Amino acid sequence: MAITYKAALYFDDGDKGHIEIVDKILPECGDDDVIVKNLIAGICGADYLAYAHGDGPSHMLYSGQEFGHEMVSEVIAVGKNVKGIEVGDWVFPNMGYAHRDRSRMATVGGFSEYLYLPKFTLEGRCDIPVVDLQPSAIKLDKSLGLKNLVLMEPFAVGGKAAKQMEGQGTTAVVIGAGIIGMSAALMLKHYGYEKVMIIDFSDFRLENARSFGLLTCNPQHEDVEQSLKDAFGARGAYGGMKCGAEVFIDCIGIQGSMDYFNKYAGVGAKLSIVGTHHKPPTINALSVCFNQQHIMGCGSYPYDKSIADTSALVRSGVDLSKLVTHEFSLEDIDKAMATHGDANSAQKVVIVYP
Predict the structure, then answer these.
(1) Between β-strands 270-273 and 3-12, what pairing exists: parallel, antiparallel or unpaired?
(2) Tens-place pLDDT, residues 298-312
(3) Which pTM value belongs to this model?
């Protein structure tokens, strides 16, 4: 019997987007395929920006497609040729690999009740012409709970930058206290950093950060330079006295976040750029040259490895679930999007399925 399910489709209206919930028919499970039921899905910043401001394609969101990519799903059907996975397993459908289509990195279908995953494998596939071969989905540890597991995808993003900086120092500044900034900061601590400060304008999010033992600074009512020097010390450098933080991570993607590195980073400081800069940022090239600084993109960290690291963080006693501040049903996805946009009351907003 065919299964009818509800799916949220994104539509790009130019200066904004809108969402339509429609009924779709789920294909039957073939011999090489897997079908999953979504249990919970997080709203990503890219989802919100496309919804609130339009220009979905720059966020890999295209009109008329099912979208959402931060989900935890339960396997409900497995083809006879599929190995290593069983009905009842929880998985993370792996972005552009889940549908064997790399253009669908942000349109996996997390905001749909069910997903059909064709030619499923838990191993990398050689028929997709990319270097970073990954599985269709990644098994998850049920014992960690849905609200911890729904954060595995965003933690992989900030965690890429943190992993890149593993062994590069013990002190860091993270710019942005959204979920990506929190992921970078907490994974830095997991990788051995002793002092990590987050800079943000939201007192609500900074209070969350402090609950995890992170240092914080709100430029609206604190002196950034003094806060950095108090936390990390001061040292001479080209351009005057700079703070002693060894690593900076930009998790916002605007010129203002880059300015903190330009103004306060000292000799040998490293900057990892996670935030997506839609306008070319201005870099103080003289400081980079004379202070022997390093600037890099956050690179790529396979989701199976990053999920293993984030799972280890949770098992160590760090409860990420308290970062999930709001839950909505699929029918209320417009309210969920609006709530996501309020940095003074929301951290991670999720859709939950019955």
Answers:
(1) unpaired
(2) 876 788 899 999 999
(3) 0.94
